[in-house]
Structures
1.
Amino acid sequence: MDKHARILVVDDDENIRNTMKTILEDEGYIVDLAANGNDAIEKTKKSAYNIALLDIRLPDMEGMELLKLIKDTVPRTRKIMVTGYPSMQNAIAALNKNADAYLVKPIDIENFLSIVKEQLQLQENEKEFSEQKVAEFIEARVKEMSIDQP
C-alpha cells in the first residue's frame, strides 16, 4: 500500500479540512484541500487522487452531485462521503451513487485512518486485477496472431 497516496479533502469547514489534513499528513499521505465542489472539480482535472473525502453538504453543490462530477484517477479514485448529518437515506444515496465508504462527523481518528487504509488496499487490489487482465489479454492476442501467421 502506497504511503505516498494523494488524498483530496473537500469540506466547507476550514477546521475540519485542516484537521483531516494534519491527521493524514502525519501518516505520510499527500493531501490537497478544497472548500467547495467547484474547487474540487478543478483540482481533480489537474491532479490524480487515490482518495477523495467529500462532505455531503457544500456551499455550491451537494456532495452527492460532486460524487458524480469529480474525475476518476489512479486507476479509480476511491470516494468517501463525510457528513455531520447522518441518516440512512444519505448513506443509501451515497452508496447508490458509487461512494466507496461513508463517515460520520465528528471523525473517530482510528476509524478514519482504518477506512482510508482499507480503501487504498481495495484500490491496489483493483489495479493488480486490471493489470493481470490486460496481461492475459495481450498473451491471448499474441497467441492468436502467431496462429494467423503463415
2.
Amino acid sequence: MSRTRLAAAQRGMETRPDDMATIHPTAVVDHEAKLDPSVVVGPFCVIRKGARIGAGTVLHSHVVIEEGVILGQNNHIYPYCAIGGPPQVLGLTGETPTGGVTIGDRNVIREQVTIHRSKYPGRCTRLGSHNLIMVGSHLGHDCQLEDRIVLTNFVQLAGHCKLETGVWLSGLVGLHQFVTIGQWAYAAGMTTITRDVPPFLIVCGSYPTRVRGVNARGLKRAGLNDQQQQRIVEAYKRLYRQGGTLLEKARTLAEQDGFDENVRAIVEAIEKSSLHRFGRYLESSRHGRT
C-alpha cells in the first residue's frame, strides 16, 4: 500500500485493493461511477452513476458529484461542494434532458462551491485547469472557464458566461448571463458586470461598470515582456482616455502600426461586444441554441 493509501486508511478510509480508489465508509459511490485507483473520497461524499474522476483527485468530505460530471487529474474539492446539479431554469423537470460538467486538471475548488450542468443535452459547463475557485462561488449552467482563473469568495456567474485565461474576479462580483471577460482582466470586489470586458483591463463599480486601468499584475502573470506591456498600456490610453466613441477608436487603432496580438485581442473584444445592443457578444447566439 502506498503512503497516501496508508495514511487514508489510518484516518478511517476503507482499505481496498491497489486497483480501487480509497473511499471512506460513510461515502456513497454508485457502482457505475468510474474512479481512478489513486482517487481519495472523504467522509459523507456522494458520487452518482456515470461520474468519472481522474488520477490524484481528492474529495475532502461532504462533496456531491452528480451524474455526467467528468473530473480530471489532481483536483482538490473541499467540503460541501455540489458539482453537476441541474440548471436553475424555470420549466425544467426531472425528466428534461440536460448536459454535463467537464473539469480539467489541478483545480482547487473550495467550500460550498456550486457548478451546474449544461441546459442542453450533449453540451457541458466547462472549467479548465489550474484554477482557484474560492468559498461560495457559483458557476451557472453552460459557463465556459479557461485556465489560471481566480474567483474570490462568493463570485456569482449567471448562465452562459465565458471567462478567458487568467481572469481574476474579486469577492462578491456578479456577472449577467452571456457576459464574456477577456484574458487577464480583473474586476474589483462587488462589481456588477452586465457587459463584456476586454482583455487585460481593470473594471469596478456597478451600473455602469467602469474601466479603471490596465491590469499590470495580470500582464506579469501572463508572462508578457516590457514591449508587449507598453503596447497594451498605449492602446488603453487611446481607447479609454481620449474623446470619441469606443468602437470608432478601436477601429482606428486596428489600422495603425504596433498592432500586436494582445492589442488585437482588445480591439476584437470591443468589436464583438458591439454586435449586441447590450454589449454581450454571446447573447447574439442565444436564439441559435437548441
